[in-house]
Design goal:
- The chain is α+β, with helices and mostly antiparallel strands and 434 residues long.
- The chain has two domains: 258 residues, 3-Layer(bba) Sandwich (FAD/NAD(P)-binding domain); 168 residues, 2-Layer Sandwich (D-Amino Acid Oxidase, Chain A, domain 2).
- It has eleven helices and 20 strands.
- The strands form four sheets. Strands 4, 5, 6, 13, 14, 15, 16, 17 and 18 form a nine-stranded mixed beta sheet that branches. Strands 8-2-1-12-20-19 form a six-stranded mixed beta sheet, covered by helices on one side.
- A hairpin with a 4-residue loop joins strand 14 and strand 15.
- Helix 1 runs parallel beside helix 5, helix 1 packs parallel to helix 10 and helix 2 packs parallel to helix 8.
- The chain is globular, with a radius of gyration of 21 Å.
- The two termini are 32 Å apart.
Length: 434
């Protein structure tokens, strides 16, 4: 077998790279091939909360999240492929009610507004109006992203995978990568359980398994594998009754999005997808309704999002404290601890008393691949020409996957990279540890 590009890893990042790269190549003479050892989305993506917030301290990351949100919404509205997007809005409270933390939140809102993000500062009365049933003090301050929301993780990966295949990308699931072949300091092929693939470029988008693929090449990245506990509580009937009529935002089309940059170019490609599917955009099902917006609560250290398809609310830690160190991503317990369950329930109930007495409905542990600075590594690995990495997303992969896909495709085709800042994400920043 032969391919121009081989992408290893079938999560949301790998699938996004395949989609954007396939748009730029001839599927017959320069095929893009994606390899996944299990099924699509079976790693970190399967357990992702898939919240599409844009509230970042870095303008670079905020811009990527902005463009990715617009891209996801454009895909849904123009192709008829449902990603399970729920436009709930996202509320981020200030870290504390201290003057320094409130000023920092206001500064970040101003920065994000300046780059076209739909966000504004809200105070206690408006918070209570937007988010019925929430308990906040009278001096509370937050950031409100009205057009943000969340995706269904599995449905999104499958839908993007379908679009990539329609563009000519070849997907091989159930295929184990046994090694990457190099000669003269450059990539020449990949050995797999299904045979050898000759190729010019390899992208490692395998999340927690990236280091296993680098070690035989004598390379290392400072990527830590961690487990993130997530707890589920059943949807509250009381919360459903209190939902504000404006909490669910109508899905805007690209013409209303104020799209800039590479997203505006992709709208033309998305329009062409209509002719590649049996479902017309007018036949899309109505948006799902959620009892309340996504809540990000730095003060109490948690986030919560509704999952109406499963009649539950997901609660997880915000930030990186309390994560579980994972030595082997193929062998770890996925049981959520009783201490975490108790903490998660108490944190949610303190903000939303309507969830008291609502039944527990389980939990799960999701995998994080993390870097020391919590920013992804994107780009070519030093020392081997044609070997690229897209990993270490530290829990932010879904938020930025379309931007990553576009930028990595630009890089692979030797185009100017406009979808992200290559220097900001370069592995060279860790060269003392490589």
């Amino acid at each position: 077998m032969k391919a121009r590009i081989v992408i290893i890893g079938g999560g949301v990042v790998g699938v996004s790279i395949a989609l954007h790269a396939a748009r730029r190549t001839d599927s017959l003479s320069q095929p893009v091939m994606l390899l996944e050892r299990r099924e699509l989305g079976s790693g970190s993506s399967r357990h992702s909360a898939a919240v599409l917030g844009q509230f970042y301290g870095s303008e670079s990351l905020a811009g990527m999240a902005r463009d990715s949100l617009r891209y996801y919404r454009g895909i849904e509205s123009m192709t008829g492929r449902s990603l399970g997007f729920i436009p709930t809005g996202v509320l981020t409270l200030s870290k504390s009610r201290g003057e320094k933390d409130i000023q920092r939140l206001i500064e970040l809102v101003d920065m994000q507004e300046s780059i076209g993000i739909d966000i504004r500062t809200v105070h206690a009365d408006e918070i209570r109006s937007l988010f019925r049933g929430i308990v906040v003090p009278d001096d509370a301050v937050g950031a409100w992203e009205a057009s943000a929301g969340c995706l269904d993780a599995s449905r999104s990966v499958e839908a993007l995978g379908t679009l990539a295949r329609n563009r000519g990308a070849i997907f091989r699931t159930g295929t184990l990568v046994e090694g990457i072949e190099t000669r003269g300091g450059r990539v020449v092929g990949v050995r797999t359980s299904a045979g050898r693939i000759e190729c010019e470029q390899v992208v490692l988008a395998a999340g927690a398994w990236i280091q296993q693929l680098l070690t035989p090449l004598g390379l290392a990245l400072p990527i830590r594998i961690a487990g993130s506990e997530q707890f589920f509580i059943g949807s509250s009937e009381a919360a459903l009754e209190e939902v504000h009529s404006e909490s669910t935002i109508s899905m805007a089309g690209p013409e209303d999005s104020g799209a800039t940059g590479w997203y505006s170019r992709d709208v033309a490609h998305a329009a062409a997808f209509e002719h590649e599917h049996d479902v017309h955009p007018d036949e899309m099902p109505p948006p799902l309704q959620a009892p309340h917006p996504v809540l990000t609560d730095p003060e109490r250290g948690f986030y919560a999002r509704c999952e109406p398809l499963h009649s539950r609310v997901r609660i997880g830690r915000r930030g990186y404290e309390g994560l579980i160190d994972i030595q082997d991503p193929d062998d770890f317990s996925d049981q959520v601890g009783a201490d975490f369950q108790s903490w998660a329930r108490a944190a949610l109930e303190a903000r939303m008393p309507a969830y008291r007495e609502v039944s527990d409905v389980g939990g799960e542990i999701g995998l994080f691949s993390m870097t020391p600075d919590h920013h992804a590594i994107l780009g070519q690995m030093p020392g081997i020409e044609g070997l690229y990495v897209a990993g270490g997303f530290s829990g932010h992969g879904f938020k930025v996957a379309p931007s990553v896909g576009e930028g990595m495709a630009q890089m692979l085709m030797d185009e100017p990279v406009s979808a992200f800042d290559p220097e900001f994400f370069s592995a060279k920043r860790f060269e003392n540890g490589i």
